[in-house]
Structure prediction request, 431 residues.
Amino acid sequence: MKKKVVYVGLAADIVHKGHINILKTASKLGYVIVGLLTDKAISSYKKLPYFDFNQRKIILENMKYVNEVIEQKTLDYVENLKKVKPNYVVHGDDWKAGIQKKTRERVIKTIKKWGGKLIEPKYTKNISSSQIKTQISNLGVTPQNRLSKLRRLLNSKKIVRILETHNSLAGLIIENLSHINKSNLIEFDGMWSSSLTDSLTRGKPDNQSVDYSTRILGLNDIMDVTTKPIIFDADNGGRLEHMSYLVKTLERIGVSAMVIEDKIGEKQNSLFENQAKTKQDNISNFCKKLKKAKDSKISEDFFIVARIESFILGKSLRDALNRGEKYVNSGADAILIHSKERKPDEIFDFSRKFKKIKPECPLIAVPSTYSSVKETELIKNGFQIVIYANQMLRAAYPAMTNVAKRILKNERSFEIEKEITPIKEIINLIK
Prediction:
């Protein structure tokens, strides 16, 4: 007699006794096919899985309760169910409510067409992959594990959200904050180490007065309390002969990417109106920097990002495209196209044309001036990473100024106590 087919949809990021109970129940019913969610499918509703798809697949294939593992590309089961046409679908009863309630209803409706049955073992309490991952995160992360996360995120998400962090407290906010939007978990995927905010928090101008060594020391403090990937703002990368040292240092501590801009001369923030003191490096010289950076890196997961300043300096779209193509050919793993316009028109013009030249190269947007643009628009126009480059510091400054003024005015802090974070909440964030 032919065995009946049993379908089990699993993320199985970190396999625990709850998964074992489900699979054991399924194995008693027949031939067990596990629909293993891809990294992209998991990332659509919760955090990036700790183990990638291939690692999770190998684990499941070697379990005695599993006969076959296939790819499940979405949270929704329907596509796979129509292919497999199982006699049974097995899932814990925890999906009767919450994010997966609608998924459950679609499963029931689909398998009913061929007389399939849903089996729902009682959910195993007090254990979950999310809990285990939180515990692991609390232990910390190795430099290589952190470094490699950015590439995994790019392969798993429509857009990778990066937020500026200027100290460890800001890093903890980025590490822990999330938002549920239309049943999907949304969070910041990583941190931006900005030369601007690193300088300003030290009371110094954004003109490279704070050297790389000092900034990297500050990064170590942030890394002590976070696990998410970090993109480092390296300005113009400094002198060519120092490039190898910078790349190797950033790799060693676990930074995922460094951004090098193609401006030379006296350092001046790109958002200033007057750029008379700066000029763009010639293509040949900048390509030498990129090649040096590429030749110096050890890990393929470490990104060299070329930041094109053509629009900032009044150059043409043609100039930006020409530079982008040559920069990628010289070793850039991604391109950041910068603009100080209030609308994203010129960066969208660039992205549409650039993707025809280098379709596989990730594009990065920094919407500081064109802040009204939605992430959905960035995705539509080919961008894969968005960096919110200075908003955390800009939010902190007026808040601190207001508190200080009111304490002076009232000669006490009583009036502002209800508007500021309770000390217990700050303590709980850090412990």
